[in-house]
Amino acid sequence: MIRYATEHDFALLNKYDKHICEAELRNSIKANRILIMYHGDHLIGWLRFNLFWDHIPFMNMLYILEAYRGKGCGSQLVSFWEKEMLNRNFTMVLTSTLSNEQAQFFYRKIGYNDCGSLLLPNEPLEIILLKNIV
Asked: pTM, whole model, 2 decimals?
């Protein structure tokens, strides 16, 4: 099951997602910008997004718990999100990953294409990826 996170999910998401402060996590939940995936009562993972330039959906975080990786859960969650964004009349989506992470290969496999990069001091290259969803 995939659904938007609610305030009832805050404690669980806050336990796992260490890449966002509590206040912004609450804001993201209220703005319907976090999708969560469950199998029965078990959390599988989540997808958190925002709007780049205030009008392009940008996937900030896709996280699948270790026990569920390699089983298609990430692809299902991203596909659900892309359909949601298409239903909101968006025509493209973005995400990024560090050049030293394996996620870049996953995103390319599911149709994302490199479209730019960002180099911050003392960090590996951040690869920006785009997918047209129309």
From this structure: 0.93
